[in-house]
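User: For a teaching handout, I'd like to show students what a predicted protein-ligand complex looks like in token form. I'll give you the sequence and the SMILES for magnesium ion. Please answer with just the structure.
Assistant: Understood, here is the input followed by the structure.
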Amino acid sequence: MVLEVKWAGIDFGQCLLSGSRERTYWMIGDACKELGEPEFIEERCHKWRLMKEKYGTWSAIKEKRRPEIVTYVFDDRPAAKDVFPLVERKYFSLADGAVDALKYLVDQGIEVSMVAEHRRTLGPIGTDETTRFLQSSKIIKYFTELITPQGKVNLRDGAIDLKYKGSSKETESGGTMYDILAAELLARGIKPSEAVMVGDKEWSDITPAQKRGFKTIHYIGYLLTGPSNADYTIRHFSELKGIVKGV
Ligand SMILES: [Mg+2]
């Protein structure tokens, strides 16, 4: 069964944006060198590992414990606050096959939007990590909107819509972002069953979307956080071609 859709939502972290575990250690090392303190690499990598053991995953640290990267791992060096994000950005990369998959979806006449977690208030395009990455990796043209629990950004004209503010992506807090999304799509003549959500987390990309009638694809190319009842599970973005097409 091929999923015939008019709209596709793609998750950002650990999905479109890839990253390996090792990469995070290289980031610590490079940041130490940038700071002129290569002698601390080993010690700071060790602290980084302790932090990962404490909080579980890189994304948990990144999303909820970010200040501790500077205060704990980098011994509260003020310069680390600027240096680390710059180094981090250098290591961001697109998931394998993502560009071809995006091209394919758009060629099929499918509208593609990014559906991302976002903790900070949204500003103009290019002022946050997500849109900056879409710009620098030259894929922003494939996306219509950036939809987040902080609001929605029209990626063509930069307009911000705050209807989504305060909603949530996770089952645990209701997954209400998908209620708003489903209603918006429906108002434009797109049924949830004609929309597909692609993401890596069962609890924020798959189950809450399925509950609203969306089709779902579980991407496990980077991280397998647990099973889901998604319509499909893929390891590589090239697989999208065989399972999704335009209506
Ligand atoms: Mg994700």
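For the handout, you might add this sentence: The two ends are 14 Å apart (CA to CA).
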